[in-house]
Design goal:
There is one protein chain. The chain is mainly α. The protein is rod-shaped.
């Protein structure tokens, strides 16, 4: 029997005969397996990118919310400062009005006094106040008061008026 083989030889032949079939099957399977593997890997990459994008969007949204809160807080602080400024301006206007009224009363009082008496009182006042009062008086009243005022103050007032201060 020329074709009689031992069991070991038959197994070797079968094995070697099966290997090319496996190789051709493996060569045929890898394209389908590699295509599905590539698709799975691509999908995994896309999922990872989507996840990263979603995380970034969430971080951006959180920062936007934080910025909106900060903007609202800044706006409320600006409003509070504007209200404080308005109250301060109103207070300053009221104080100025009171001072102007007091000054007008004082001016009226000094105009009603005799020049000697008015000069005596004005000499006891602050120099800046006296000069301011002289600026507000009419020329006729100033002429009546000049001989009774402290002469260096009068000269200073004249110099300031000539210089345009």
């Amino acid at each position: 029997m020329p074709f009689a083989l031992s069991a070991a030889e038959g197994a070797t032949i079968q094995k070697s005969a099966g290997e090319p079939a496996k190789e051709s099957g493996a060569a045929a399977e890898p394209p389908s397996l590699s295509a599905s593997r590539a698709a799975r890997e691509e999908k995994a990459i896309q999922d990872a990118r989507r996840q990263q994008l979603a995380e970034r969007e969430a971080a951006v949204a959180a920062k936007e919310q934080e910025l909106k809160k900060l903007a609202a807080r800044l706006e409320s602080q600006v409003k509070a400062l504007e209200e404080s400024k308005k109250r301060l301006d109103d207070s300053l206007k009221a104080q100025k009005k009171v001072q102007d009224e007091k000054r007008k009363k004082m001016m009226a009082l000094i105009k009603k006094m005799r020049p000697e008496q008015a000069g005596k009182y004005m000499d006891k006042m602050d120099e800046g106040m006296v000069i301011s009062m002289l600026d507000q008086m009419d020329a006729k009243t100033v002429l009546k008061l000049m001989p009774y005022l402290n002469q260096p103050r009068v000269f200073k007032w004249i110099n300031d008026n000539l210089k345009g201060v």
